[in-house]
């Protein structure tokens, strides 16, 4: 942990001098308009930093609220990505940091707040805000696109559940990664906090009453610039029987931001026919 801590402190000192000593700041908005605001103030003397999410909007009556551990984890992830050294991913990376995450906000909600979508979805938006503050690269898809389908199980006359009479399925859907100084983004890839793989079409169709009619790159959907953002994908399901289907998603209103004059990427779209 001491090694990881030393590397983070050295990185923060370099960042301080490269940015002229100014606090790092970024602001983005969830699709419902809730702001996620971040200011990082670095102390060049010891390489410590204050990570301040003051300005982030209030918790809401939805499941996108994210316990503060998610903001901390996203910060750990981004720091590890930005440090170009082989260091372990552990608590030492966070020792130089002091966090302010105001209570009652989207990133530090009350115990009663719903938080189901905070981990897979809001974490992606927090990651984009952190990367924006460091001006490391343009935004990626900012989403996990959590898609699920299933049917309820049946019961026998005595009220006992009938085995294998119902089923459920869920997956996250990939998208484009952001471009950076010297590289194009990657198309159709899981990025940042998704930590999962999309289901193979053959296994999906074998195990569930589903036909995957299309799984393709959505050409031109990534932001254009000197270096182009990665493109998103198009995934079309056809159901062989009546099912319940849902998707939890973001970036359907807001667009993944570009950097240094690059254009934003397209917003995603969910269709049900």
Could you walk me through the main structural features you see in this protein, from its secondary elements to its overall organization?
The model has no long low-confidence stretch (mean pLDDT 93). The protein has 273 residues and is of the alpha+beta class. The chain starts with a helix and ends in a 25-residue tail after the last strand. The protein has helices at 2-18, 68-82, 118-134, 201-207, and strands at residues 24-29, 35-43, 48-52, 97-100, 146-151, 167-172, 210-217, 233-239, 244-248. It has a four-stranded mixed beta sheet with strand order 1-2-3-4, with helices on one face. Strand 1 (24-29) and strand 2 (35-43) form a beta hairpin. It is built from four helices and nine strands, in the order H-E-E-E-H-E-H-E-E-H-E-E-E. It folds into two domains: 1-136, no CATH class; 138-273, no CATH class. Helix 2 (68-82) packs across helix 3 (118-134). This is Hydantoinase B/oxoprolinase. InterPro entries: Hydantoinase_B, Oxoprolinase-like.
Please describe the structure with a list of short key phrases separated by commas or semicolons.
single chain, 273 residues, alpha+beta, 4 helices, 21% strand
Mean model confidence by pLDDT:
93
The helix/strand order is: HEEEHEHEEHEEE
Number of domains: 2
Coarse shape: globular
Low-confidence stretches: none
Distance from N terminus to C terminus (CA atoms, Å) equals 52 Å
> Widest sheet: strand order?
1-2-3-4
Would you count the extended β strands for me? 9
Report the β-strand fraction as a percent range: 15-25%
Number of helices: 4
What percent of the residues sit in helical stretches (DSSP H or I)?
10-25%
Which secondary-structure class do the elements indicate? alpha+beta
Largest sheet: 4 strands, mixed
Rg for CA atoms? 21 Å
GO cellular component, one term: cytosol
Organism: Pleomassaria siparia CBS 279.74
GO molecular function, one term: 5-oxoprolinase (ATP-hydrolyzing) activity
Domain Hydantoinase B/oxoprolinase: 2-269
């Amino acid at each position: 942990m001491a090694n990881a801590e030393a590397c983070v402190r050295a990185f923060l000192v370099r960042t301080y001098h490269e940015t002229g000593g100014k606090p790092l700041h970024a602001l983005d908005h969830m699709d419902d308009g809730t702001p996620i605001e971040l200011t990082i103030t670095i102390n060049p003397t010891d390489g410590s930093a204050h990570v301040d999410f003051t300005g982030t909007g209030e918790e809401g009556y939805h499941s996108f609220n994210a316990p503060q551990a998610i903001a901390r984890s996203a910060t750990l992830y981004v720091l590890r990505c930005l440090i170009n050294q082989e260091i372990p991913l552990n608590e030492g990376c966070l020792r130089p940091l002091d966090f302010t995450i105001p209570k009652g906000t989207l990133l530090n909600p009350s115990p009663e707040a719903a938080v189901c979508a905070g981990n897979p979805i809001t974490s992606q938006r927090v990651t984009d805000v952190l990367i924006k503050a460091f001006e490391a690269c343009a935004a990626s898809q900012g989403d996990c696109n959590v898609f699920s389908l299933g049917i309820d199980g049946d019961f026998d006359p005595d009220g006992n559940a009938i085995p294998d009479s119902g089923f459920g399925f869920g997956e996250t859907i990939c998208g484009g990664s952001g471009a950076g100084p010297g590289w194009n983004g990657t198309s159709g890839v899981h990025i940042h906090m998704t930590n999962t793989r999309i289901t193979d079409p053959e296994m999906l169709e074998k195990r569930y009453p589903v036909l995957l009619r299309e799984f393709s790159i959505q050409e031109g959907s990534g932001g254009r610039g000197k270096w182009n953002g990665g493109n998103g994908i198009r995934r079309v399901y056809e159901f062989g029987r009546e099912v319940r289907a849902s998707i939890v998603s973001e970036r359907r209103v807001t667009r993944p931001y570009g950097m240094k004059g690059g254009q934003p990427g397209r917003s995603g779209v969910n269709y049900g026919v």
